[in-house]
Design brief:
Elements (H helix, E strand, L loop, with lengths): L1 H25 L3 E7 L2 E9 L4 E6 L6 E8 L4 E6 L5 E6 L6 E9 L2 E5 L9
Antiparallel strand pairs: 1-2, 2-3, 3-6, 4-5, 4-7, 7-8
Length: 123
């Protein structure tokens, strides 16, 4: 009986480790979305595996999209997409470690509004 319980415990441990492993990988990236007037306007995404930042202009409203980023080490920056509705622009940034992002709508270079910051990526 003890041998069966021990084997069940080992199986549960391995299954738990697999779940934790896949959860950690899923949280390595970061994303944020800004909505206004009941419509999604802009999205921001950080792909940790590719060191790639994205700014997506979601709605055909004449506004652009801005991704603002901040690292745990104190680095900050912005990345704009003024290519029009439905477009996504990407930018590679290396060596940032843990990063958090926010999505903003912009018009003539000025913020219209922004989401809150995402949680920090796993880095």
């Amino acid at each position: 009986m003890k041998k069966k319980i021990g084997m069940l415990g080992a199986v549960a441990f391995v299954a738990g480790a697999l779940v934790l492993g896949s959860s950690a990988a899923a949280t390595a990236d970061a994303s944020a979305s800004y909505s206004n007037g009941g419509y999604q306007r802009a999205t921001a995404y950080w792909n940790a595996g590719a060191d790639r930042l994205s700014a997506s202009d979601v709605r055909n409203d004449g506004w652009g999209a801005r991704t603002k980023w901040e690292t745990k080490a104190g680095g900050i920056g912005t990345f704009d997409n003024t290519d029009g509705a439905g477009t996504t622009k990407n930018k590679t940034i290396t060596g940032v470690g843990q990063i958090r992002i926010r999505a903003c709508s912009i018009n003539n270079g000025n913020d219209i509004g922004c989401s809150g910051f995402s949680a920090y990526s796993a880095g």
